[in-house]
């Protein structure tokens, strides 16, 4: 069970992160439908390939095929929604665990800052921003794992560990270039598992906090 000694929020606001992530998925699909074409493996390919294109391809001003990227405004909106949703998630999560002030503050700050940096993925410093966001995210995830173990939410803990393994796999493939052609699929699968895990945590926190 989650920590019952701390005051819980008892509010539907706790479901906003899950709702925001669902909205992100819808906007992601819309942006993909608007993408004019081109992928890292075929610059002339029409439209967005779920097998060969990356999420970041939707965020650029010009598509890989050289045409203006009509998907960019929607993709930027989707990214803003996702970052805002996860900032709320990290804000609401720590009080539900038996953390001290330092532990709760570390998880909250690391998680929220991770989302701040993630909001700049479309900048010229993509790799640097991504590395900082991932490092801060790992700190927040580590604290969450401790909280889940302390409160015996072992199913959610196991799913969280899977998320961390997938994150490490993404980074390994990206930096070693081994199996690089499979990375777009790995990225999307990682997105899906992470969003599902965050949503489950949000719903579980809401249910725990209800009167």
Describe the structure.
By secondary structure, the chain is mostly helical. The protein has one domain. Helix content is 63%, strand content 0%. The protein has helices spanning 16-34, 72-92, 101-118, 126-150, 154-176, 183-209. Helix 2 runs antiparallel to helix 3 and helix 4 runs antiparallel to helix 5 (154-176). The radius of gyration is 18 Å and the shape is globular. It starts with 15 loop residues before the first helix and ends with a helix. Residues 1-9 have low confidence and may be disordered.
Write down the overall mean pLDDT: 86
Instruction: Report on the biggest sheet.
Output: none
Low-confidence sequence ranges: 1-9
Given the structure, what is the number of helices? 6
Total tally of structural domains? 1
The geometry reads as globular
Helix content: 55-70%
Can you write the helix and strand succession as a string? HHHHHH
Proportion of strand residues? under 5%
Q: Work out the number of β strands.
A: 0
Q: What separation lies between the terminal Cα atoms?
A: 15 Å
- Provide the structure class: mainly alpha
Radius of gyration: 18 Å
């Amino acid at each position: 069970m989650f920590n019952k000694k701390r005051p819980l929020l008892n509010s539907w606001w706790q479901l906003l992160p899950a709702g925001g992530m669902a909205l992100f998925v819808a906007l992601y699909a819309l942006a993909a439908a608007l993408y004019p074409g081109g992928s890292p493996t075929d610059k002339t390919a029409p439209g967005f390939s779920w097998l060969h294109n990356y999420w970041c391809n939707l965020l650029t001003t010009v598509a890989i095929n050289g045409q203006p990227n009509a998907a960019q405004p929607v993709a930027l909106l989707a990214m803003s929604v996702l970052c805002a949703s996860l900032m709320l998630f990290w804000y609401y999560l720590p009080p539900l665990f038996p953390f001290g002030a330092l532990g709760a503050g570390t998880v909250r700050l690391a998680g929220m800052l991770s989302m701040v940096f993630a909001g700049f993925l479309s900048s010229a410093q993509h790799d640097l921003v991504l590395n900082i966001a991932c490092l801060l995210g790992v700190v927040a995830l580590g604290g969450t794992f401790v909280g889940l173990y302390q409160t015996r939410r072992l199913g959610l803990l196991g799913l969280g560990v899977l998320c961390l393994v997938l994150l490490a796999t993404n980074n390994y493939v990206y930096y070693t270039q081994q199996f690089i052609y499979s990375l777009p699929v790995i990225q999307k699968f990682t997105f899906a598992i992470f969003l599902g895990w965050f949503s489950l945590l949000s719903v579980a926190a809401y249910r725990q906090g209800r009167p």
